[in-house]
Amino acid sequence: MSLAPILDSIVLFGDSITQGGWQANGFAQKLAYVYNRKMDVINRGLGGYNTEWGIPVFEQMFNKKEGHPSHSKCKLLTIWFGANDACIPPSPQRVPLDKYKANLEWMIQALRSESSEYYSPWTRIILFSPPPIQLSAWAAALADREVPRDLDRTFEETKRYADAAKEVAAAQRVPLVDTYDALWKAAGEKEEGLTPFLSDGLHLTEKGYEIVYEELIKVISRDIPELHYDKLPMVFPAWDAVDPQNVRSTVVSRYVDV
User: Fold this and answer.
1) Span 110-118, mean pLDDT?
2) Could you tell me the pTM of the whole model?
3) What is the pLDDT at residue 258?
4) What confidence category does residue 146 fall into, taking pLDDT thresholds of 50, 70 and 90?
5) pLDDT at position 35, please?
């Protein structure tokens, strides 16, 4: 037995920074609230993953031959990788810059190309740049682990990957949430100014996610206005629109195949 796709969905795809979007007042939580009864928000953030490891997950999400995604139609996909790809050697998480760009391009084209088995013409895509890093805080976090680790990132390398994400977005003509620039400007363009926005030098705080959420809503409003929550009807009617004498005909969703 399969469930009918009651609501269309927004799928958030990325690493731990996406995964952390479910924390209190995270960007995923805020999206789920404003899109309640309009679109489901599905978080596919995978802590520690890079674009190379994310591709097999992407294939499972969108391979129609395997029936994915069976729960709903993905109308908006956000892709937010780069923080781990930008690790420096010998980290196993590192993905070379050219390969990182190629992986992002592959995901975008996999959904756009009619010859692709992952073709999804109804899915709009928004790309995110990775956020800046506060090296002193991240070094302290690594040193404080049960098994201390050496510093595995640099400020300059993270910036290169953020710039690469912007280049891919421009070349592929997809909207971009420029997380890097938004947080860097909020920090006064000083590394020490990132403290309110990064919990450990890498992952976002509530204030950091607030900036990301606001930037995402701006991008949706500007580039995909038809998917803004204010423009979407509720899938099921408001309670005062239900006919008590004929409940089924008024409550069955118009999106369900019956």
Assistant:
1) 94
2) 0.92
3) 34
4) confident
5) 97
Contact assessment for residue 7 and residue 39, using Cβ atoms and an 8 Å cutoff: yes
Question: Is it the case that residue 157 has pLDDT exceeding 70?
Answer: yes
Q: Which pair of structure tokens corresponds to residue 169?
A: 């977005």
Told to judge if 203 belongs to the known catalytic residues of this protein, a careful annotator would answer yes
Whether 68 is a known active-site residue: answer no
Tokens of 142: 């690594």
For residue 104, give both structure tokens. Answer: 């992002």
Six token digits for residue 55: 């591709």
- Pairwise CA distance, residues 14 & 227, whole Å: 21
185 vs 131: CA distance, rounded Å: 11
Secondary structure (3-state) at 161: helix
What is the Cα–Cα distance from 69 to 75, expressed in whole angstroms? 11
- What is the rounded distance in angstroms from the CA atom of residue 166 to the CA atom of residue 236? 38
DSSP bridge pairs for 128: 177
Report residue 61 CA to chain centroid gap: 14
Which domains can be identified in the chain, with CATH numbers?
Answer: 8-251 (3.40.50.1110)
Interatomic CA distance for residues 107 and 118, integer angstroms? 9
pLDDT grade for 70, boundaries at 50, 70 and 90: very low
Spot the catalytic one: 71, 91, 200, 253. Answer: 200
- DSSP 8-state symbol, 194: G
CB of 169 closer than 8 Å to CB of 175: yes
Whether the predicted pLDDT of 173 surpasses 50: yes
What does DSSP say about strands 39-45 and 8-14: parallel, antiparallel, or unpaired? parallel
**Annotation says 16 is catalytic:** yes
pLDDT band at 73 (very low <50, low <70, confident <90, very high): confident
Which entry of 9, 40, 120, 203 is annotated as an active-site residue?
Answer: 203
